[in-house]
Structure formats: C-alpha cells, structure tokens
C-alpha cells in the first residue's frame, strides 16, 4: 500500500471535526450571498475550498470564523452544535482564521502578537516569562527560525504567515482556516508553509485551505469542496480527480454566458504604450497597449498584479518602466504627475482611498480640479459638480450632503465625477463594481461605455469576468504578476478565458483577435 493510500485510509476513518450543513446568508433588501452551503472537515486533513470569484467563499469563511451570523443552517464542532456571535466565540471552541491580509500588529514582538487578547497572567499581572516560554513552544511547532522577541515588522511575509499559524496554536486551534496564503509568497516560502501544514495535520489539526491555484491544491490537499453561486456543488478527493472535473464544477457545465453587446472596432491612436513595467512582488508587464476610445479589462486571481499595475501607472507604486504616453516617455513619480498627464484612478477601496466620507459631495467631486485653488468659492464648486452628477444620474439630496450618506453606487459615481470634472482621459478603474447591486453595476458600465465613446481610454480591473466580458474590447489575463494572454471577447468564449485565469496558461493561439 502506498503512503498516499495509507493517508487516505486514515483520513476516511477520522471523525468530522467540523460539519457545516445547509448554511445560508441573506442581506437586505434581497441579496442572497449563500443559499445552501456545507462542508465536512475530518480531523488531520487538508480540506481545500475552491470557487470562482463571487462564489460565496468569503462569506462562507466569515460565518465559520464567527465574523458573521448565518441566516440559517447549522455548524457543529466535534459533533456539538454551535452558534457563533463573534470571532472570539469561534476561537474559544478551536476555530482559527488566518486572513489573506494578516491581522498582526507590526510594531509588537512575535510573543506579544501570539498572545494578544489572551496573555498569560499570574493573579491578574502579566506573566512575561510564561508568555515567552509558550511562544517559543508554538514557534518550534511551526519550524520558525526566528525568536519570540523579534518585531513582526522585521519579518518576511512568509515568517509573518508562520507567526499567524503559531498564534492559532496558542489558542489550541482544532481547525485552522487559511485564506489564500500563497498570494504574497514565492515558491520556497510557500513550500516552508506547506511543510508546517503537513506537520500540523500529522498532529491532528485540520486545515481548511482556500486557493484558486489547482497546482497548490494537488500538492497539499486531501479533499476539495467547490462552491458556485452560493451553493456547495460537490466534494472531491484530490487524488484521482482531473483538472477538467474541477473546472467544470467551478464554472458549471451548462452555464449560459451573459449577453454581450458588440462594440465597434477601436480605431483610435495608441495613447499608452507599455513596453516594460516591473515592480515589487514579481510584477513584470510587457507589450501592453491602450488606444483612445478603448476599454481593456484585466482579469486574474487575487495577487495576480492587477492592482499593482494600475497603481504604478498612477504613480502610486515604485516601479521601473519603459513606456510612452501619446508617444512621449512617461515616468510618473507620484499621483500628482499622473493626474497632470490626464490619468484618473477609481481605487479598489473607494471609502478609504477614493472619498473623504465626512466631507460634502461637491468638495469630493471637485477635489482634483481644485488643486492650487485655495480660494475657490463654494458656489463655483457646486456649479461644476451638479451638471456632472446629473449626467451620471446620481441620486442625492443636496450637494452639501456628506458623501457618507449616499448608497455605494452613488458614492462610486461621485468618485467618477471627480475625474470627469477634472477632464481626465485615461481612466483606471480597480474593482469599480464591488459592493454594487445589479442595477448600479449596469449604470456604471453604461457610463464607462459612454466615456469611451467620447474618446476616453479605460482600463478596468475586476474579479467579475462576466462584467469584463460584456463591457470590454479586449481582456488581458494577469497571472503571478505577468500579463500572459490577451483575448478578444467577440471571438472567445468566457470558459477559455476562465481556464487561462485558473491554470495560468493558454493555448498559444493568437489571442489578440
């Protein structure tokens, strides 16, 4: 009997440490994030969770980790029904969540982070000696080569991952959920994390491992459950299940593609020509061109480099590049330089990076165009704002109203209004439809189409491939920091693009259309 067979037999005999059945989550007024999802995790296994963007994975994980309360359904730990009202309650019964964006405190030491919220004490007085000893034990379990006194901010991303895993062990975690742990790791760092996972499962700890990358699942996973449309589709044994079966489960065998309205061929001049752009975390973009009046979509898994590329074009990320703007060398040192050259950025997080929430609508909308005009009259700013908000069909009370009081869709329109008022002709949109309902998404892309028809050049990065497929002239697939394939949606079906996105490879045919 092979070692793999022995491991499989052992896992099949293990009882479920975590059982989730018929769980759902509804948001008002009528949004169904999860409809009927379930998962059974055995003690000592690596159970992978797979699904396309928007499948419901994030909501599912938050319910398991106690960050959200389910609308219906049941969660059992060690056979006992539980109802989590907070992450602390989930942690208390052995469920630990390690988010993709690690929630460590950089300025504190490793030991302080490991016991943050539950420090050892002696009659109410912090016991630093015990904390250090227990921290050393937890670090030894994960094979760390750094000590408990190191500052977290001095550690590599891989060692911060190990710190987060070690923190779970100080809580005596029975199940550790790891959300996209490989997003910021290189191959050597990831293999070190995999080795820790293998050692933990040998000790009986269960791992729920979330990733889009099939190669990782095959290397580390025992079973994989696929979510689609907020529902559990099927659970597979990793061994013996071909990629084709997993991809079909992710996409749906009989899925109907959304309607695509054909756009006229783009004939405008090349406005942006990126021969080479390189940046942190392996960003390496080659031969990227954008024409006047064109809408280019960027698709790819989390951590594929889409946001880094847009931020670099906007002068907000350090990079080295050989690129031209309207035939003239372009090297933005900061966002101010990019704005002067006609760029506008709708950032991924509009609330923290795109708006001043407690400031009036008209001040947000005129912020870029009022640079240097310290004595601009409020009446003048409102006069410039109102026609553009009307053009965008923005629903608001008065221009003096604080933007925080608007709906998500109308907040997004205010962000766009900034760049229309400024006269920006190169728009960079990063996840512009995130958090918007169907109606607001339709309004957004109708607006983007109108801007392109008026001569603007637009790059849209989105996790929603169906939106890009419907709205864009061409779609670039990003994978691990590189732009690996360009597709013409008029000549390519969504499945082909999605397979390239998931597998990180394409057929080699001419994808330019």
TrEMBL record:
Which CDD domains does the entry mention? ABC_Carb_Monos_I, ABC_Carb_Monos_II
Which GO MF terms does the UniProt record name?
Answer: ATP binding
Q: Which UniProt keywords apply?
A: ATP-binding, Nucleotide-binding, Repeat, Sugar transport, Transport
Which parts of the sequence belong to the ABC transporter domain? Answer: 18-254, 266-505
Q: Which InterPro entries match?
A: AAA+_ATPase, ABC_carbohydrate_import_ATPase, ABC_transporter-like_ATP-bd, ABC_transporter-like_CS, P-loop_NTPase
Q: Work out whether the entry's keyword set contains Metal-binding.
A: no
Among SMART domains, the record links this protein to: AAA
Tell me one Pfam family matched here.
ABC_tran
| Superkingdom assignment | Bacteria
Q: What family does this belong to?
A: Belongs to the ABC transporter superfamily.
Recorded protein name is Sugar ABC transporter ATP-binding protein
Species for this entry = Ahrensia kielensis
